[in-house]
Amino acid sequence: MNLLVITAAVIMSATMNTAQEEKTDFYHNTEIENNHIVAQYIYKKVAVPYENKVYQMLEPHRMYDYNYDAEERLSVRTSHHWNGQQWGPESRLEYTYADDGYSVSISYWDKNKQRFSSPMYKTVYTEMPDRTAVQICNYQRCGKDWVQTTQLLAPSVQGTLQS
Question: How far apart are CA 161 and CA 54, in angstroms?
Fold first, then answer.
């Protein structure tokens, strides 16, 4: 199963859709290496007054970096925010793959411990055996256990989760 196609398509689609919007206050710069998106920088347009004039400038806003596993599937997306001087970690999405789907969990940066917390939320995407639908389950961590919070069955786009 090649789920990288889904993830890469979603990332590229978001970049292209944003880039095509005429009136936006955000601008994207995407770095690609070996056909993989490795980083995205988001800049916000801000008005800066200077000597009785107002100039439009781009200010760093958010940065995402992407890591891939040995099978070239997206494994981690880390989000960073701009604190006025440097990029600081904010959250991390971790992708785990199975034969019938994948899961995405999110962790948040703990400033006190200077590391990411254990994942607090997780979404599991499972393709049904007949490939007509995808089951989407959301979970929240409760102590050491995962508790299901929602479940949805969505029609499958033929070939979406298959190679």
Answer: 49
Single out the residue of 73, 78, 66 nearest to residue 101, CA to CA.
73
Element (DSSP H or E) covering residue 15: helix 4-20
% helix, strand, coil for the chain, step of 5: 10, 60, 30
The fraction of the chain above a pLDDT of 70, given in percent, is 82
Q: Which of 100, 79, 102, 71 is nearest to 6 (CA)?
A: 102
Angle at 100 between CA 95 and CA 106, to 5 degrees: 20
Q: Is 132 among the domain residues? A: yes
Q: Is residue 90 part of a domain?
A: yes
Task: Give the pLDDT confidence of 131-163 residue by residue, as tens digits.
Answer: 888 999 999 999 999 999 999 998 877 655 544
| Entry pTM | 0.77
Which CATH number is 9's domain given? 2.40.128.720
Q: How many CB atoms are closer than 10 A to CB 4?
A: 19
Of residues 10 and 25, which shows the higher confidence score? 25
- The domain tally of the chain equals 1
